[in-house]
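hi!! sorry for the late reply, been swamped w classes. u asked for the two structures so here they r. pasted raw, havent cleaned anything up. first the sequence of the first protein and right below it the tokens
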Amino acid sequence: MRKSAAIGMICGLAIIGSAMPALAGPTGHRSVLAGAPWRLAGPGWAVAEYSASTGYLTTPSKPGPTTLYLTSPLGRRYAFHSWPGSYHAGLIDWSGDRQRVLAEVGREVEQVSLGSGKVISKFRLPAKVILIGYTRPDGLNLLAARW
């Protein structure tokens, strides 16, 4: 019984091609590059987010800026992208080729270039589909599950 449950879960996974159409350019986003040393990023480095929003599930909820940072193994932070007044902007994954990060902003998914700090694609997933992250090892496609 356990094996069939695992197979059922695996069958629910889907790989989403990187050729998905991008929507019109983003609004309310900004690039905050601060000289992040992307060429050095590797083992021990992390991409992290900080949000001043109280979230959309709290009462009363309050929007606030969400900022993405490249963090060195020694704890130095380099801001590279932010959403100024979002209720929900969340980091999903960092691509294996270290070129992009994947973020969910409300009901939309965005890929942010680590080289420029700009949104390079923006799209929505079909209903009942949740995003898991980039495929490995390079992150050239996306992995999602349908519930």
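now the second protein. again sequence first, tokens right under
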Amino acid sequence: MKIILRIQRYNPETDSAPHFQEYPVEVEPTDRLLDAILYVKQHVDATLAVRKSCAHGICGSDAMRVNGAERLTCKTIIKDVAAEGDVIVLEPLRSMPVQRDLMVDQKGFFEKYKSVKPFFIPAAPQRPKEQLQMPQQRMRYDDPTKCILCGACYSSCPVVADKNPQFIGPAAVLQAARFVFDSRDIGIRGRLAELDTSNGAWACENHFDCTKVCPRTIKVTKSINETKRAITVHKENGHQTV
């Protein structure tokens, strides 16, 4: 089948503004969208800039906007987004500076991610042996562990894009939740300063866009709301451990 990839192009060294360029390609309905993009890169226009790594939905590096919605192109099948003769519009992720074409600068995204201390802070003194958990304790924070930091949720968030660019974003709050609800971690105490602010968890307005676009089907909005409740309970209990 024949389709057209309408790709946003932008080279800050030569272009004054982004523009679109169209590339007709022959594909199979079961091909991945990433394969079509790489065909253009390898056989049609070597100047096209696109980021990819594992190409198996694990690294998250090929996230972009496909027909206006955030997707991983390595997990997107052509027939799911286009029929014969259709145009597929490809744009870089929002709310991050465009480096070139479909590549964005993720520095600010990862700075916000690091602000919530996305690492294990032990609630008890370190022990020579592993700290055991019951299965239900592990399940409490299982969903956030699936995050691959692709940035799709951050790009889709209307709060970051249109209202408050200082909002740390869905991915950062989700990563905080992974440790907030870990029974072995110090929890909310070590992350309250970053989360309990107008730019932290409270900036979320429950649009659910982050949950809709997550390629790992993580209930992002649910984790954010659970984190808000954890902050409230923590403060009501006089800053006791959640």
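hope this helps!! also noticed smth abt the second:
Residues 107-236 form a domain with the Fumarate Reductase Iron-sulfur Protein; Chain B, domain 2 fold (CATH 1.10.1060.10).
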